[in-house]
Amino acid sequence: MFQISFKDVLYLILYAIPNTLFSFGILFIINNVISGHPEFLTDYMGMVFVAVVIYTYLLNIIFQKQLNKYSFSILYRNEKNIFDKILKTPLLTLEKLGSQRFFTAVEDLRIFAFLPETITHTVNSLLMLLLCMAYLFTLSVSSALVIVGLIVAIAGLYMIVIKTMSKQVARLRRLNEDYYEYVSDVTKGFKELGISSLRRSNLMKRFLVPNRDTAEGLDFKISYIFLSINLISN
Questions:
Q1: Rounded Cα–Cα distance for residues 122 and 114 (Å)
Q2: pLDDT of 109
Q3: What's this model's pTM, rounded to 2 decimal places?
Q4: Cα 101 → chain centroid
């Protein structure tokens, strides 16, 4: 559904690398100054540090602007592509799938709009992690090994959570598809619903309200669990 080319991914990776290197440079300077290394206690080191901070800040502004522009470009390109595919889909297939499938597909595109940011953040984090781990090994091998063990443990926990929650995410998607089907039914039978208060009440109490209540609880549960595991990883 969502299309992103290898060229797009490579472009995002190349954007992330300079930002990571400068961010690591800031941490490197701070740590060596605190540690009292003579070569980092010179008169000009303050100017070097300020210059690196300012350059990193400006680079981040340019990077975020280009990243947002790039993300929206990919999003709207995919929106046009999916609409074109809908128009080219045979009528029998459209009737079989139902309009709710296309509503959820369009909604999913908005979620995938964060993919470019996710790619750059992942590359940034992994590169920073590798640089910091390499530096930490030069300071204390035992401490570095403890950190590696923690990272592996948290990564394993994260994979278990993702695998466990995949069924819940699929269930939430089905609930949203049913919701869009109800919305479609309302738009198609608006006159009949306007005439009959019994039909309106039946639609709300038996279908829409239970659907939204269940989806709300499930959505909150999924978000809370992922938020918790992200806080642990951070």
A1: 12
A2: 72
A3: 0.56
A4: 22
Would you say 99 and 69 are in contact if contact means Cβ atoms under 8 Å apart? no
Task: Identify residue 204 by its one-letter amino acid code.
Answer: M
In sequence order, the 6+-apart residues with CB closer than 8 A to the CB of 208 are 179, 182
- Evaluate whether 138 touches 31 at the Cβ level (below 8 Å): no
Q: Report H helices in the chain.
A: 6-35, 45-88, 91-97, 99-112, 115-139, 141-188, 190-195, 197-202, 209-233
In this structure, are residues 116 and 70 in contact, taking their beta carbons and an 8 Å threshold?
Answer: yes
Q: Please say whether the beta carbons of 73 and 115 come within 8 A.
A: no
pLDDT tens for 24-53 read: 888 888 888 888 888 877 878 888 888 888
Rg (Cα) of the chain, in Å, rounded?
25
Structure tokens at 190: 């608006």
Q: Which two tokens stand for residue 115?
A: 């993919």
By three-state DSSP, how is residue 90 classified? coil
